[in-house]
């Protein structure tokens, strides 16, 4: 995600390639074109945003969550060859009680690549420390590191999966206009496989694209059931609500000394 200019250049070039080969009426080709346009908009028009993220993830053999998180994200901005604004994340857990008020800050290139964490929850809530984003401690309750959080990375994943599935005859795509989630008018997209194969990482995924924001606001992926007749197994589910774009986030929003945060102010990362 941090090499975003390179990434969008590659996917736009790839988009030209697959659009020449794909049938114009292909639902997946249409979805990819929309995803590419949405990603380019995030690159050029959206500097930052705040939102509420609710997630459920299947980890170590069981479905965890749901967890509800207040989230601030500032996208990387380049000034020539230099990083003018690094990718930055602040999050605060709202639910459940076991992790309520846990806070995390991550700024790419700062604090030796570590994130600042205040424990929150029911035990030792004010313990503040730093952790590598991909360490065992950081990843024990999450499928992905904090470096991959947000709707921009979600859009990247959708594009990557879509490109792989475009020529897959075992794949089918459904698009439903006028669907609603959390009162928002969206386009529902479902991509699934007709038959189970060893190289497939999911049975089907569903995505809701907000028609006004042109952003993915809901994503869920299911795996095949353990045995025929059982319901599919949820792998991961992410819902983004109360999205506010370009709110003018500054360095202070990603500083643990911010008076609105509960980190130990004396902590030196």
Give a brief description.
The chain is α+β, with helices and mostly antiparallel strands. The chain has 4 helices and 13 strands.
| Poorly predicted residue ranges | 1-24
Q: Please report which band the strand proportion falls in: under 5%, 5-15%, 15-25%, 25-35%, 35-45% or over 45%.
A: 35-45%
Helicity range of the residues? 10-25%
> Which class do the helix and strand fractions yield?
alpha+beta
**Whole-number count of domains:** 2
Number of strands: 13
- C-alpha end-to-end distance: 24 Å
Order of helices and strands: HHEEEEEEEEHHEEEEE
Query: What is the global morphology?
Result: globular
Largest sheet: 11 strands, antiparallel
**Tally of helical segments:** 4
Order of adjacent strands in the largest pleated sheet: 8-7-6-5-2-1-13-12-11-10-9
Rounded Rg: 19 Å
Global mean pLDDT: 88
């Amino acid at each position: 995600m941090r090499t975003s200019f390179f990434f969008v250049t590659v996917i736009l070039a790839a988009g030209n390639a697959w659009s020449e080969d794909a049938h114009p009426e292909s639902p997946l080709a249409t979805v990819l074109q929309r995803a590419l346009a949405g990603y380019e908009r995030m690159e050029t028009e959206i500097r930052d945003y705040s939102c509420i993220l609710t997630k459920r993830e299947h980890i170590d053999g069981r479905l965890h969550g749901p967890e509800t998180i207040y989230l601030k994200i500032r996208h990387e901005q380049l000034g020539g060859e230099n990083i003018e604004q690094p990718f930055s994340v602040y999050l605060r857990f709202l639910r459940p009680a076991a992790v309520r008020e846990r806070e995390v800050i991550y700024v790419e290139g700062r604090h030796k690549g570590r994130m600042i964490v205040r424990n929150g929850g029911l035990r030792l809530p004010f313990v503040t420390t730093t952790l590598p984003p991909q360490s065992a401690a950081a990843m024990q309750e999450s499928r992905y590191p904090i470096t991959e959080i947000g709707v921009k990375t979600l859009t990247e994943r959708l594009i990557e999966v879509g490109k792989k599935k475009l020529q897959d005859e075992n794949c089918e795509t459904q698009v439903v206009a006028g669907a609603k989630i959390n009162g928002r008018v969206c386009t529902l997209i479902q991509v699934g496989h007709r038959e189970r194969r060893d190289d497939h990482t999911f049975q089907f995924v569903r995505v809701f694209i907000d028609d006004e924001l042109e952003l993915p606001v809901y994503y869920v992926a299911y795996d095949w059931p353990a045995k025929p007749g059982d319901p599919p197994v949820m792998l991961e589910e992410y819902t983004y609500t109360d999205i506010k774009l370009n709110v003018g986030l500054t360095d202070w929003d990603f500083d643990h000394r911010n008076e609105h945060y509960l980190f130990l102010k004396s902590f030196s990362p």
